[in-house]
């Protein structure tokens, strides 16, 4: 069914999920609470997106990979920007992540953080609670090491979009995993 124009609305048990046109959500991903998944985004199997009290909004053409966890433990809205990649096994809790940002494998973004646009949070880096990471910042090693790289957001977004385009053009998710069907209520 149509919901707010171009969006599709799903309701599973006590979950309310809005999946915008062209997004793909694998059935063996765990999505609970009040969640909006932007158009063209991909939610891979075994990922977890959970918001028991608040809301999570994932921007358009973003990707949440296997075993990634996005959890909003607060009552407000948590946002993951457009063109953003949450890589395998990363963990993001009650934080804001800007557009064109990459949270690399097994990185951890603790509660209350604000990650700017065009950032990279390196492999296994843990960002302390309530940290503000400026736009175009790369955090590496123990999160106390950083550098600024201009134009990083454009590069990150292009990489994300290229990967999504490849996965969707080859029908990799839909050929190998069961997807939630847009417009169906279960």
List the helices and strands and how they pair.
Layout: E1 2-3, E2 7-12, E3 15-20, E4 24-25, E5 30-37, E6 42-43, E7 48-58, E8 63-64, E9 69-71, E10 77-80, E11 85-86, E12 91-93, E13 96-97, E14 102-103, E15 108-109, E16 114-115, E17 120-121, E18 126-127, E19 132-133, E20 137-140, E21 145-148, H1 152-169, H2 172-176
Parallel strand pairs: 3-5, 4-6, 5-7, 6-8, 7-9, 7-10, 8-11, 9-12, 11-14, 12-15, 13-16, 14-17, 15-18, 16-19, 17-20
Antiparallel strand pairs: 1-2, 2-3, 20-21
- Hey, roughly how much beta strand do the residues contain? 35-45%
Oligomeric category: single chain
Share of helix, binned: 10-25%
Major β-sheet annotation = 10 strands, mixed
Element-by-element helix/strand order: EEEEEEEEEEEEEEEEEEEEEHH
Task: Report how far apart the termini are.
Answer: 12 Å
| Continuous helix count | 2
Broad shape: globular
Rg over C-alpha atoms, rounded to the nearest angstrom? 16 Å
């Amino acid at each position: 069914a149509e919901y707010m124009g171009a969006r599709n609305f799903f309701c599973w048990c006590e979950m309310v999920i809005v999946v915008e046109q062209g997004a793909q959500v694998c059935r063996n991903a765990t999505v609970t609470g009040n969640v909006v998944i932007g158009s063209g985004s991909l939610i891979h199997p075994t990922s977890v997106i959970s918001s028991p009290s608040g809301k999570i909004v994932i921007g358009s053409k973003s990707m949440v990979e296997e075993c990634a966890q996005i959890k909003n433990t607060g009552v407000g809205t948590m946002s993951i920007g457009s063109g953003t990649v949450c890589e395998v096994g990363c963990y993001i809790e009650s934080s804001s992540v800007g557009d064109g940002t990459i949270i690399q494998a097994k990185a951890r973004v603790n509660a209350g953080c604000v990650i700017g646009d065009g950032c990279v949070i390196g492999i296994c880096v843990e960002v302390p609670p309530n940290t503000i990471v400026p736009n175009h910042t790369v955090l590496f090693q123990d999160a106390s090491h950083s550098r600024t790289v201009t134009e990083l957001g454009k590069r990150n977004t292009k990489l994300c979009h290229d990967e999504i385009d490849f996965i969707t053009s080859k029908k990799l998710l839909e050929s190998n995993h069961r997807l939630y069907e847009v417009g169906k209520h279960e």
